[in-house]
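User: Hey, my collaborator sent me this sequence without any context and asked if I could get a structure. I don't really work with proteins. Can you help?
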Amino acid sequence: MVVCSIASVTTAFFIFKKIHNIHAAILSSIILGFAGYSVATTQFIWNPYPIVWLMPLYFLGIYLLAKHSKWGIMLLSILQGLIMHFEIIYGLGILPGFLILVGYFIFKGKQHNKIKTLIISALLFILPFIPSLLFDMRHQFLMTKSIVTTITTGGQNLTHKGAPDNLTTRIILRIDDLKAFTLESVTTNVLVNYTLFILFLIGVGIMIRVKKDAQQLTTIVLTTIILLSPFFVFLFLKYSVWGYYWIGTAPLYAMLLCFGLGFLFEYYKEFRLFWFLAIILLFMYAPWSAINQWYGGGLVPGYQVFSTQQRVLNYIYNDAHGEKFSAYEQTPPVYDYVYRYLFWWQGRKYGYIPTDEKQKNVYVILENVPSDPDAIYFVKNTLHITEAPITTEVFGDPYPKVEKFIIDPSKELPVDPNFFPQL
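Assistant: No problem. I've predicted the 3D structure and written it out in C-alpha coordinate form, which is a compact way to encode the shape of the chain:
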Protein backbone atom coordinates (compact mmCIF):
# COMPACT_ATOMS: atom_id res chain seq x y z
CA MET A 1 0.00 0.00 0.00
CA VAL A 2 2.79 2.42 0.90
CA VAL A 3 4.59 1.79 -2.39
CA CYS A 4 1.43 2.24 -4.48
CA SER A 5 0.44 5.38 -2.60
CA ILE A 6 3.83 7.03 -3.00
CA ALA A 7 3.91 5.98 -6.66
CA SER A 8 0.49 7.56 -7.21
CA VAL A 9 1.48 10.92 -5.71
CA THR A 10 4.79 10.81 -7.58
CA THR A 11 2.94 10.06 -10.82
CA ALA A 12 0.76 13.13 -10.31
CA PHE A 13 3.90 15.20 -9.77
CA PHE A 14 5.49 14.13 -13.04
CA ILE A 15 2.23 14.49 -14.98
CA PHE A 16 1.93 18.15 -14.03
CA LYS A 17 5.65 18.78 -14.39
CA LYS A 18 5.23 17.62 -17.99
CA ILE A 19 2.02 19.46 -18.89
CA HIS A 20 2.44 22.60 -16.74
CA ASN A 21 5.36 23.51 -14.49
CA ILE A 22 7.15 22.55 -11.30
CA HIS A 23 4.85 24.73 -9.19
CA ALA A 24 1.72 22.94 -10.38
CA ALA A 25 3.50 19.61 -9.95
CA ILE A 26 4.35 20.28 -6.30
CA LEU A 27 0.86 21.62 -5.67
CA SER A 28 -0.74 18.47 -7.09
CA SER A 29 1.39 16.24 -4.88
CA ILE A 30 0.52 18.23 -1.76
CA ILE A 31 -3.20 18.34 -2.49
CA LEU A 32 -3.39 14.66 -3.42
CA GLY A 33 -1.26 13.63 -0.46
CA PHE A 34 -2.89 15.79 2.20
CA ALA A 35 -6.47 16.28 1.00
CA GLY A 36 -9.17 15.94 3.63
CA TYR A 37 -10.59 12.72 2.18
CA SER A 38 -7.17 11.07 2.47
CA VAL A 39 -6.30 12.43 5.90
CA ALA A 40 -9.69 11.44 7.24
CA THR A 41 -9.64 7.81 6.23
CA THR A 42 -6.38 6.33 7.48
CA GLN A 43 -3.36 6.74 9.72
CA PHE A 44 -1.25 6.56 6.59
CA ILE A 45 -1.16 9.83 4.66
CA TRP A 46 -2.90 8.44 1.59
CA ASN A 47 -6.20 6.77 0.96
CA PRO A 48 -5.64 2.97 0.89
CA TYR A 49 -8.13 2.30 -1.91
CA PRO A 50 -6.61 1.24 -5.30
CA ILE A 51 -9.08 3.35 -7.30
CA VAL A 52 -7.70 6.48 -5.63
CA TRP A 53 -4.22 5.50 -6.76
CA LEU A 54 -5.40 5.13 -10.36
CA MET A 55 -7.07 8.52 -10.79
CA PRO A 56 -3.91 10.53 -11.67
CA LEU A 57 -3.42 8.08 -14.55
CA TYR A 58 -7.10 8.43 -15.47
CA PHE A 59 -6.58 12.18 -15.76
CA LEU A 60 -3.49 11.57 -17.89
CA GLY A 61 -5.58 9.34 -20.16
CA ILE A 62 -8.13 12.14 -20.62
CA TYR A 63 -5.34 14.61 -21.35
CA LEU A 64 -3.83 12.30 -23.99
CA LEU A 65 -7.28 11.69 -25.48
CA ALA A 66 -7.80 15.44 -25.81
CA LYS A 67 -4.42 15.59 -27.58
CA HIS A 68 -5.77 12.99 -30.05
CA SER A 69 -3.26 10.38 -28.94
CA LYS A 70 -4.27 6.74 -29.38
CA TRP A 71 -2.60 5.97 -26.05
CA GLY A 72 -5.25 8.02 -24.28
CA ILE A 73 -8.21 5.77 -25.08
CA MET A 74 -6.14 2.63 -24.47
CA LEU A 75 -4.99 3.85 -21.07
CA LEU A 76 -8.53 4.89 -20.16
CA SER A 77 -9.90 1.51 -21.23
CA ILE A 78 -7.70 -0.58 -18.97
CA LEU A 79 -8.21 1.88 -16.09
CA GLN A 80 -11.98 1.75 -16.55
CA GLY A 81 -11.82 -2.04 -16.45
CA LEU A 82 -9.72 -1.97 -13.28
CA ILE A 83 -12.10 0.49 -11.62
CA MET A 84 -15.08 -1.74 -12.40
CA HIS A 85 -13.13 -4.68 -11.03
CA PHE A 86 -12.29 -2.92 -7.75
CA GLU A 87 -15.69 -1.26 -7.22
CA ILE A 88 -18.41 -2.17 -9.70
CA ILE A 89 -20.90 0.44 -8.41
CA TYR A 90 -18.50 3.34 -8.98
CA GLY A 91 -17.39 1.79 -12.26
CA LEU A 92 -21.00 1.74 -13.45
CA GLY A 93 -21.38 5.28 -12.17
CA ILE A 94 -18.68 6.65 -14.48
CA LEU A 95 -19.37 4.20 -17.31
CA PRO A 96 -21.67 6.62 -19.22
CA GLY A 97 -18.94 9.25 -19.01
CA PHE A 98 -16.38 6.74 -20.24
CA LEU A 99 -18.62 5.87 -23.19
CA ILE A 100 -18.75 9.57 -24.06
CA LEU A 101 -14.94 9.56 -24.07
CA VAL A 102 -15.02 6.57 -26.42
CA GLY A 103 -17.46 8.46 -28.64
CA TYR A 104 -15.14 11.46 -28.63
CA PHE A 105 -12.28 9.26 -29.79
CA ILE A 106 -14.41 7.73 -32.55
CA PHE A 107 -15.57 11.07 -33.95
CA LYS A 108 -12.57 13.28 -33.12
CA GLY A 109 -9.62 10.89 -32.97
CA LYS A 110 -7.07 10.38 -35.70
CA GLN A 111 -8.38 8.23 -38.53
CA HIS A 112 -5.19 6.18 -38.91
CA ASN A 113 -5.59 2.70 -37.38
CA LYS A 114 -8.69 3.78 -35.44
CA ILE A 115 -10.37 0.35 -35.68
CA LYS A 116 -7.21 -1.37 -34.49
CA THR A 117 -6.94 1.02 -31.55
CA LEU A 118 -10.58 0.38 -30.57
CA ILE A 119 -10.08 -3.40 -30.69
CA ILE A 120 -6.99 -3.16 -28.50
CA SER A 121 -8.85 -0.82 -26.13
CA ALA A 122 -11.76 -3.27 -25.90
CA LEU A 123 -9.37 -6.10 -25.01
CA LEU A 124 -7.67 -3.91 -22.38
CA PHE A 125 -11.08 -3.07 -20.94
CA ILE A 126 -12.04 -6.76 -20.69
CA LEU A 127 -8.69 -7.95 -19.31
CA PRO A 128 -9.29 -6.92 -15.65
CA PHE A 129 -12.68 -8.69 -15.75
CA ILE A 130 -11.20 -12.14 -16.30
CA PRO A 131 -10.68 -12.96 -12.56
CA SER A 132 -14.16 -11.63 -11.73
CA LEU A 133 -15.68 -13.56 -14.63
CA LEU A 134 -14.11 -16.82 -13.46
CA PHE A 135 -15.30 -16.14 -9.91
CA ASP A 136 -18.80 -15.35 -11.18
CA MET A 137 -18.99 -18.54 -13.25
CA ARG A 138 -17.88 -20.65 -10.29
CA HIS A 139 -20.47 -19.05 -7.97
CA GLN A 140 -23.63 -19.28 -10.08
CA PHE A 141 -23.16 -15.72 -11.43
CA LEU A 142 -23.56 -14.18 -7.97
CA MET A 143 -21.99 -10.85 -9.00
CA THR A 144 -24.02 -10.56 -12.19
CA LYS A 145 -27.25 -11.26 -10.31
CA SER A 146 -26.34 -8.64 -7.72
CA ILE A 147 -25.71 -6.00 -10.39
CA VAL A 148 -28.94 -6.85 -12.20
CA THR A 149 -30.83 -6.70 -8.90
CA THR A 150 -29.33 -3.29 -8.10
CA ILE A 151 -30.38 -1.93 -11.49
CA THR A 152 -33.85 -3.49 -11.57
CA THR A 153 -34.70 -2.51 -7.98
CA GLY A 154 -33.25 0.97 -8.32
CA GLY A 155 -30.81 0.33 -5.47
CA GLN A 156 -33.36 -1.07 -3.02
CA ASN A 157 -31.21 -4.14 -2.42
CA LEU A 158 -28.41 -1.87 -1.15
CA THR A 159 -30.44 0.52 1.01
CA HIS A 160 -33.09 -1.95 2.28
CA LYS A 161 -35.65 0.89 2.37
CA GLY A 162 -39.30 0.01 2.10
CA ALA A 163 -40.25 2.84 -0.24
CA PRO A 164 -38.26 4.71 -2.91
CA ASP A 165 -37.25 8.35 -2.48
CA ASN A 166 -38.96 11.02 -4.54
CA LEU A 167 -37.04 12.88 -7.22
CA THR A 168 -36.68 16.06 -5.16
CA THR A 169 -35.08 14.17 -2.29
CA ARG A 170 -32.73 12.36 -4.64
CA ILE A 171 -31.67 15.61 -6.31
CA ILE A 172 -30.89 17.21 -2.95
CA LEU A 173 -28.92 14.19 -1.75
CA ARG A 174 -27.01 13.86 -5.02
CA ILE A 175 -26.10 17.57 -5.00
CA ASP A 176 -24.77 17.14 -1.46
CA ASP A 177 -22.73 14.13 -2.61
CA LEU A 178 -21.38 16.04 -5.60
CA LYS A 179 -20.26 18.94 -3.41
CA ALA A 180 -18.76 16.61 -0.82
CA PHE A 181 -16.66 14.71 -3.37
CA THR A 182 -15.59 17.73 -5.43
CA LEU A 183 -15.77 21.29 -4.12
CA GLU A 184 -15.60 20.37 -0.44
CA SER A 185 -13.20 17.42 -0.66
CA VAL A 186 -9.86 19.26 -0.75
CA THR A 187 -9.64 20.61 2.81
CA THR A 188 -11.73 20.59 5.97
CA ASN A 189 -12.53 24.30 5.55
CA VAL A 190 -15.41 25.18 3.21
CA LEU A 191 -14.18 28.77 2.68
CA VAL A 192 -10.75 27.54 1.61
CA ASN A 193 -12.31 24.97 -0.73
CA TYR A 194 -14.45 27.52 -2.53
CA THR A 195 -11.59 30.02 -2.71
CA LEU A 196 -9.46 27.39 -4.45
CA PHE A 197 -12.35 26.69 -6.83
CA ILE A 198 -12.68 30.40 -7.68
CA LEU A 199 -8.93 30.54 -8.39
CA PHE A 200 -9.38 27.48 -10.57
CA LEU A 201 -12.10 29.26 -12.57
CA ILE A 202 -9.82 32.29 -12.95
CA GLY A 203 -7.07 30.02 -14.25
CA VAL A 204 -9.43 28.40 -16.75
CA GLY A 205 -10.64 31.84 -17.82
CA ILE A 206 -7.06 32.90 -18.45
CA MET A 207 -6.46 29.78 -20.53
CA ILE A 208 -9.56 30.45 -22.66
CA ARG A 209 -8.89 34.16 -23.15
CA VAL A 210 -5.11 34.16 -23.55
CA LYS A 211 -3.93 30.74 -24.68
CA LYS A 212 -7.07 29.82 -26.62
CA ASP A 213 -5.98 26.19 -26.47
CA ALA A 214 -8.90 23.99 -27.57
CA GLN A 215 -7.19 20.78 -26.43
CA GLN A 216 -6.64 22.10 -22.90
CA LEU A 217 -10.28 23.14 -22.73
CA THR A 218 -11.31 19.71 -24.03
CA THR A 219 -9.35 18.11 -21.18
CA ILE A 220 -11.32 20.17 -18.67
CA VAL A 221 -14.67 19.40 -20.33
CA LEU A 222 -14.04 15.65 -20.60
CA THR A 223 -12.82 15.45 -16.99
CA THR A 224 -15.92 17.33 -15.86
CA ILE A 225 -18.09 14.81 -17.70
CA ILE A 226 -16.49 11.97 -15.72
CA LEU A 227 -16.98 13.90 -12.46
CA LEU A 228 -20.66 14.50 -13.20
CA SER A 229 -21.41 11.00 -14.49
CA PRO A 230 -22.06 9.38 -11.05
CA PHE A 231 -24.39 12.25 -10.18
CA PHE A 232 -26.78 11.41 -13.02
CA VAL A 233 -26.46 7.63 -12.71
CA PHE A 234 -27.22 7.67 -8.98
CA LEU A 235 -29.94 10.27 -9.50
CA PHE A 236 -31.96 7.83 -11.60
CA LEU A 237 -31.76 5.07 -8.98
CA LYS A 238 -35.12 5.14 -7.20
CA TYR A 239 -33.46 4.64 -3.84
CA SER A 240 -30.81 6.97 -2.43
CA VAL A 241 -27.74 4.76 -2.69
CA TRP A 242 -24.93 6.10 -0.54
CA GLY A 243 -22.48 8.50 -2.14
CA TYR A 244 -19.43 6.84 -0.62
CA TYR A 245 -19.30 4.70 -3.74
CA TRP A 246 -17.88 7.75 -5.57
CA ILE A 247 -14.38 6.68 -4.62
CA GLY A 248 -12.44 8.16 -7.51
CA THR A 249 -14.31 11.46 -7.79
CA ALA A 250 -12.35 13.40 -5.15
CA PRO A 251 -8.82 12.61 -6.43
CA LEU A 252 -9.89 13.24 -10.04
CA TYR A 253 -11.32 16.60 -8.98
CA ALA A 254 -8.01 17.38 -7.24
CA MET A 255 -6.20 16.71 -10.53
CA LEU A 256 -8.61 18.97 -12.43
CA LEU A 257 -8.21 21.68 -9.78
CA CYS A 258 -4.43 21.64 -10.11
CA PHE A 259 -4.75 21.68 -13.90
CA GLY A 260 -6.71 24.93 -13.76
CA LEU A 261 -4.50 26.48 -11.09
CA GLY A 262 -1.48 25.74 -13.25
CA PHE A 263 -2.61 28.39 -15.73
CA LEU A 264 -2.26 31.02 -12.99
CA PHE A 265 1.39 30.09 -12.65
CA GLU A 266 1.88 30.27 -16.41
CA TYR A 267 0.20 33.64 -16.92
CA TYR A 268 1.38 35.60 -13.87
CA LYS A 269 5.03 34.65 -14.24
CA GLU A 270 6.30 37.66 -12.27
CA PHE A 271 3.94 36.71 -9.41
CA ARG A 272 4.35 32.95 -9.82
CA LEU A 273 6.10 32.49 -6.49
CA PHE A 274 3.47 34.62 -4.75
CA TRP A 275 0.58 32.62 -6.21
CA PHE A 276 2.31 29.36 -5.42
CA LEU A 277 3.04 30.22 -1.77
CA ALA A 278 -0.39 31.80 -1.30
CA ILE A 279 -2.20 28.70 -2.53
CA ILE A 280 0.03 26.37 -0.51
CA LEU A 281 -0.58 28.40 2.67
CA LEU A 282 -4.29 28.60 1.88
CA PHE A 283 -4.44 24.85 1.48
CA MET A 284 -2.32 24.04 4.51
CA TYR A 285 -4.26 26.43 6.74
CA ALA A 286 -7.29 24.17 6.91
CA PRO A 287 -5.72 20.72 7.32
CA TRP A 288 -3.20 21.56 10.05
CA SER A 289 -5.61 20.52 12.75
CA ALA A 290 -6.69 17.60 10.57
CA ILE A 291 -3.09 16.45 10.15
CA ASN A 292 -2.56 16.51 13.92
CA GLN A 293 -5.69 14.45 14.38
CA TRP A 294 -4.67 12.22 11.51
CA TYR A 295 -1.52 11.37 13.42
CA GLY A 296 -3.77 9.81 16.04
CA GLY A 297 -6.08 8.39 13.43
CA GLY A 298 -9.11 10.39 14.53
CA LEU A 299 -10.13 13.24 12.22
CA VAL A 300 -13.77 12.64 13.16
CA PRO A 301 -13.78 11.46 16.80
CA GLY A 302 -15.39 8.06 17.15
CA TYR A 303 -15.96 7.65 13.43
CA GLN A 304 -14.68 4.88 11.17
CA VAL A 305 -10.97 5.64 11.43
CA PHE A 306 -8.04 3.48 12.37
CA SER A 307 -7.69 4.54 16.01
CA THR A 308 -11.40 3.92 16.64
CA GLN A 309 -11.20 0.50 15.03
CA GLN A 310 -8.22 -0.34 17.26
CA ARG A 311 -10.19 0.71 20.34
CA VAL A 312 -13.09 -1.50 19.26
CA LEU A 313 -10.84 -4.52 18.82
CA ASN A 314 -8.95 -3.95 22.07
CA TYR A 315 -12.26 -3.70 23.94
CA ILE A 316 -13.58 -6.95 22.43
CA TYR A 317 -10.42 -8.93 23.14
CA ASN A 318 -10.08 -7.57 26.67
CA ASP A 319 -13.76 -8.14 27.43
CA ALA A 320 -13.58 -11.74 26.18
CA HIS A 321 -10.86 -12.55 28.79
CA GLY A 322 -9.26 -15.17 26.58
CA GLU A 323 -12.50 -17.01 25.74
CA LYS A 324 -13.49 -17.76 22.16
CA PHE A 325 -15.94 -15.35 20.59
CA SER A 326 -17.50 -14.47 17.26
CA ALA A 327 -17.63 -10.92 15.94
CA TYR A 328 -19.74 -9.39 13.18
CA GLU A 329 -19.94 -5.89 11.75
CA GLN A 330 -23.25 -4.38 10.67
CA THR A 331 -22.42 -3.51 7.11
CA PRO A 332 -23.36 -4.56 3.56
CA PRO A 333 -21.63 -7.62 2.08
CA VAL A 334 -17.86 -7.47 1.63
CA TYR A 335 -17.47 -4.17 3.51
CA ASP A 336 -16.54 -5.91 6.74
CA TYR A 337 -13.16 -6.74 5.19
CA VAL A 338 -11.57 -3.90 7.22
CA TYR A 339 -12.47 -5.56 10.50
CA ARG A 340 -11.70 -9.01 9.11
CA TYR A 341 -8.19 -7.82 8.36
CA LEU A 342 -7.84 -6.13 11.75
CA PHE A 343 -9.03 -9.26 13.57
CA TRP A 344 -6.54 -11.30 11.56
CA TRP A 345 -3.78 -8.85 12.45
CA GLN A 346 -4.60 -8.23 16.10
CA GLY A 347 -5.67 -11.84 16.60
CA ARG A 348 -2.07 -12.91 16.14
CA LYS A 349 -1.15 -10.75 19.08
CA TYR A 350 -4.02 -11.92 21.27
CA GLY A 351 -3.75 -15.55 20.16
CA TYR A 352 -7.24 -15.92 18.70
CA ILE A 353 -8.81 -15.03 15.35
CA PRO A 354 -12.64 -15.24 15.29
CA THR A 355 -14.41 -17.13 12.52
CA ASP A 356 -17.96 -16.82 11.13
CA GLU A 357 -19.08 -19.75 13.29
CA LYS A 358 -21.14 -18.63 16.25
CA GLN A 359 -19.58 -18.90 19.69
CA LYS A 360 -21.13 -18.43 23.12
CA ASN A 361 -19.87 -14.84 23.25
CA VAL A 362 -20.99 -12.76 20.27
CA TYR A 363 -19.92 -9.16 19.61
CA VAL A 364 -21.80 -7.08 17.04
CA ILE A 365 -20.17 -3.87 15.79
CA LEU A 366 -22.83 -1.30 14.87
CA GLU A 367 -22.13 1.42 12.32
CA ASN A 368 -24.29 4.36 11.27
CA VAL A 369 -26.68 2.58 8.90
CA PRO A 370 -29.74 4.85 8.47
CA SER A 371 -31.93 2.05 7.12
CA ASP A 372 -31.23 -0.13 10.19
CA PRO A 373 -29.98 2.22 12.96
CA ASP A 374 -30.39 -0.24 15.82
CA ALA A 375 -29.23 -3.25 13.78
CA ILE A 376 -32.57 -4.97 14.43
CA TYR A 377 -32.76 -6.34 10.88
CA PHE A 378 -29.08 -7.30 10.88
CA VAL A 379 -29.20 -9.16 14.20
CA LYS A 380 -32.51 -10.91 13.52
CA ASN A 381 -32.31 -11.77 9.81
CA THR A 382 -28.59 -11.97 9.11
CA LEU A 383 -27.03 -13.16 12.35
CA HIS A 384 -30.20 -15.02 13.46
CA ILE A 385 -29.65 -14.07 17.09
CA THR A 386 -32.74 -14.34 19.27
CA GLU A 387 -31.26 -13.11 22.56
CA ALA A 388 -31.10 -9.47 23.66
CA PRO A 389 -27.69 -7.80 24.13
CA ILE A 390 -26.35 -7.83 27.69
CA THR A 391 -24.03 -4.83 27.27
CA THR A 392 -23.54 -1.95 24.82
CA GLU A 393 -20.26 -0.05 24.56
CA VAL A 394 -20.29 3.28 22.68
CA PHE A 395 -17.16 4.55 20.90
CA GLY A 396 -18.59 7.63 19.19
CA ASP A 397 -21.57 9.97 19.10
CA PRO A 398 -23.50 7.73 18.75
CA TYR A 399 -21.53 5.28 16.52
CA PRO A 400 -19.76 2.95 16.40
CA LYS A 401 -21.18 0.75 19.13
CA VAL A 402 -20.41 -2.78 20.23
CA GLU A 403 -23.23 -4.97 21.55
CA LYS A 404 -22.40 -8.17 23.40
CA PHE A 405 -24.66 -11.20 23.30
CA ILE A 406 -24.49 -14.43 25.31
CA ILE A 407 -26.11 -17.24 23.31
CA ASP A 408 -26.41 -20.98 23.13
CA PRO A 409 -24.97 -21.81 19.67
CA SER A 410 -26.72 -25.18 19.62
CA LYS A 411 -30.12 -23.46 19.75
CA GLU A 412 -29.30 -20.76 17.18
CA LEU A 413 -29.42 -20.81 13.40
CA PRO A 414 -26.07 -20.22 11.70
CA VAL A 415 -25.20 -16.78 10.38
CA ASP A 416 -26.40 -16.11 6.85
CA PRO A 417 -23.27 -16.74 4.74
CA ASN A 418 -24.19 -14.00 2.26
CA PHE A 419 -24.50 -11.28 4.92
CA PHE A 420 -27.83 -9.79 3.83
CA PRO A 421 -30.09 -12.29 2.06
CA GLN A 422 -31.83 -9.51 0.06
CA LEU A 423 -28.73 -8.96 -2.11
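In plain terms: The chain is about 65% helix and 5% strand. You can pass these C-alpha coordinates on to your collaborator as they are.
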